Amino acid sequence: MIEMPELPEVETVLRTLKPKVLSRKINRVTVFNEKTIKKPDAATFTRCLEGQQITDINRHGKYLLFELSFSMVLVVHLRMTGRLIYKDSSVSPDRYTCIIFHLDEGKEIHFQDVRKFGTMYLIRCDELDSFPPLCILGPDALDPQLTPDLFIKRLERRNGQVKGVLLNQSFIAGIGNIYANEILWTAGIHPERRVDSLRSWEKERLYHAVREVLSTAVKLRGTSLRDYVDGDGNRGEYQHHRRVHRREGEPCPLCGHPIIRIKQGGRSSYYCKICQN
Ligand SMILES: [Zn+2]
Questions:
Q1: Is 35 a catalytic residue?
Q2: Domain boundary residue among 135, 166, 198?
Q3: Is residue 98 part of a domain?
Q4: Separation between Cα atoms, residue 93 and residue 153, nearest integer Å
Q5: pTM of the predicted structure, to 2 decimals
Q6: Among 15, 18, 158, 267, which one carries the catalytic annotation?
Q7: Which chain residues have CB less than 5 Å from ligand 1, an ion?
Q8: Is 6 a catalytic residue?
Q9: How many angstroms is it from 258 CA to the middle of ligand 1?
Q10: CATH code, domain carrying 259
Q11: Residue 57: domain span
Q12: Dist CA 240 CA 98 (whole Å)
């Protein structure tokens, strides 16, 4: 089973890369896997990036946004197994390296991707707001402007099961399967509950669970159950703090009953039948 990087993992990649690559110039780009590049074509992508300086790095949900000096943005989505790792140019690329960004002062960023589902787009800054993968995203799940009121208003416009709504990036952006399971346990809400059946105090509790679980996971530098590493190649720590995710049959940390696993929309949901209803 593969866990995809979610908000805490992508934020950790950002935090590890940013101090190292900010203001650095991209001298050259080597492409080993053209399919990673979704827009424009690989030759234009490479030519346009050469000579640009990285002026800022931001994140929206699971997307990383490298702002560049020629009013362009490099948009990166790690998907299942993508990794962005900062390296010395003396280090030779491994067999999963899809793209190398050669920076000044003998440094490089290697984009490695075992499954090769990761994607990159190079677009103009003024295209950002109308760019399909980004313009359909809801507010980032840790956006300071996402207040309980706004969260609840957005939630009340949705229907269906609460787990599916949390995973829907157009509701709020950044949550995947690991943290959806952890959030629902923290909120005491059964993953199959329908959104329209939630009481107002449950909606409020869900909001606080989203913020608490994600910010704890950011502090612990993400979850490394399998592939995920940060921009320095280091693993996260949240896997040691999971309450329910991939803990089927193990005791619930609150009541001791065994954690249950069910399939929901093709993904595994883990929950406690005593603590979540
Ligand atoms: Zn329990």
A1: no
A2: 135
A3: yes
A4: 47
A5: 0.97
A6: 267
A7: 252, 254-255, 272, 274-275
A8: yes
A9: 8
A10: 1.10.8.50
A11: 7-135
A12: 31
